Amino acid sequence: xxxxxxxxxxxxxxxxxxxxxAAAFVGxxxxxxxxxxxxxxxxxxxxxxxxxxxxxxxxxxxxxxFSVSYVAQVGSRExxxxxxxxxxxxxxxxxxxxxxxxxxxxxxxxVRWSRRRADPTxxxxxxxxxxxxxxxxxxxxxxxxxxxxxxxxxxxxPADGPGPNALLQNSPFMGVHPPxxxxxxxxxxxxxxxxxxxxxxxxxxxxxxxxIRRWTLVPWTFLSLGILAGAWWSYEVLGWGGYWAWDPxxxxxxxxxxxxxAFLHSVMVQERRGMLKTWTITLIVAxxxxxxxxxxxxxxxxxxxxxxxxxxxxxxxxxTFLGLVLLGSLALxxxxxxxxxxxxxxxxxxxxxxxxxxNNLLFAAFAFVVLLGTMFxxxxxxxxxxxxxxxxxxxxxxxxxIALLLIFLAGVGPALPWRKGSLELLRGKFRWxxxxxxxxxxxxxAAGVRAPLALLAFALAAFSFGLLAAEFIGxxxxxxxTTGEAGPLALWRVVAGNRRRYGxxxxxxxxxxxxxxxxxxxxxxxxxxxxxxxxxxxxxxRYQIQFDSVWAVSESNRDGxxxxxxxxxxxxLLTRLSPRLNYYxxxxxxxxxxxxxxSLREDLYLVLLAYAADGSHxxxxxxxxxxxxxIWLGGGIVALGAVFSLWRGAAARQPRPxxxxxxxxxxxxxxxxxxxxxxx
Length: 680
Hints:
By secondary structure, the protein is an alpha+beta fold. The chain has helices at residues 2-30, 33-62, 69-74, 81-86, 92-115, 125-145, 177-187, 189-201, 208-237, 248-273, 277-299, 315-335, 352-384, 392-415, 423-446, 452-483, 487-497, 499-524, 628-646, 667-679; strands at residues 526-533, 537-540, 543-554, 559-569, 572-577, 580-583, 591-593, 595-597, 602-611, 617-626. The protein contains 20 helices and 10 strands. Helix 9 packs antiparallel against helix 19 and helix 13 (352-384) runs antiparallel to helix 14 (392-415). The chain is globular, with a radius of gyration of 27 Å.
């Protein structure tokens, strides 16, 4: 019964998505509200039907209905309820069903948003955008109705199943990472649909850039959190002590993040100056294409990765869809090239739009470097029949110079004015940040840091932090002088008065914190392993690690062996850590769960590698990773800044004081700066 109802729901959703897409395009072409309304109703119905199919699959998993093929593939009576629920996205067919659900939710949200517009036929791009999004729904619903159908019947019906992949049962965080990543990944379909709608309509409404920016910023935030959650899961669960390995599937999520970030900067130049229209739309199309490519790489079976799914028949479908989207987008861009002609031009090299353009080129170059390193092994194998690999050294050598320039621009871009800046203004703004950068480099060198790239990265981060801090401090001082408000209140009123700008600055600050964490952990990481007798201790840097005991545990879905250790420093007890090895029925090898003592200064990371059967000895690996905690802290700051930028509160409508000359500037320069900031 579950299989029949679930499959019928997906088939009906496929039919309604196709009819709705046709109605949307006809309604947009004719300006007929009846067709547009019908398409909107179809979009809501698709969401209801896909949600029904999703819930039916969850019911089949929870009730262990092994007559459903997907349940027989990933279900098990021994699997705990939580892992049974999240096993829906642990294999190919279920992950496509989750993708379709998230896509249908975005479709319903677009319908709800478009209905609030005054006239359904007045905004010509919206019907085309809805039609495009429903076409994307058609593709994914076609997959789960045919080659990736999770509702196939099993015959004979097995008495039990193998359960989900052992790695996916090793941490509850797998209930968080994929949904976050999918919400970001799938959400990039909406700005692509809006861009396609604008091209088909032949004009961009005045608020188009603001609309598409907000629809991009939401999935960008989720994608950022998804990537961060994946890095945390890799670090805390896989037991190798790292958080990023340039794995092809990691790269598949990182590439659209890079192009979407470039788009968020480019769209500001388009909104402000009427420039980069073709480039801006190209970036959002490229972002969507990279999400489709990433999905193909993950789910076609062409890659060997801890993240990838097994061999499947959906690869040709994805390649066909990717080719159609690419050719269609190029045709639309060529067709509307005249309408996308820039209205403004670059006035000076020292300007914010120039910094943003350089920022865009660096992000695009970064994405190309990652794309080349990811695809080259596949291309080489297809052409020459030889399997090659592109590892970390390539990515590090190619990406580090780009990353250093991006760290520099994270502070310089916001500090530059629009149109044209002066050397005098830049000298005033750059003085204290430059001193902070030099001071940071001198202090770190005196502390024994000798790695040139690390010193440069830390110095550039300090420089950009200083420039960003000035963007908060300067307007706050002006407000305090004009209103007499206390410092914290004046700062809040300044920031809340322009959430979009200052939210972006907070995001930049978070990225700098992440950069500091990545630099410190990659440069100064130390590791060592020992075979230790029970009761014995080993020295690891400033830590004394004593192996106390080892014991076994048995759980419903796995067995485990846990080692107890005591960690001290300078004769003072710091913590007790208990790394473990887990044994799953479906896994030939044990899966380790590390134990981590976390701090912003340094993480101590212990892994149990082996043990004697009588518990007399154990092989333990220790890793010290400085500043890893800054990565998670920076990710939180990025999310905070993005949410703040999106949040529209009453404080945002507070009146601003009249601009007055800033402290330390000539009167003319102060007035120019205040006016520039008010218009930014």
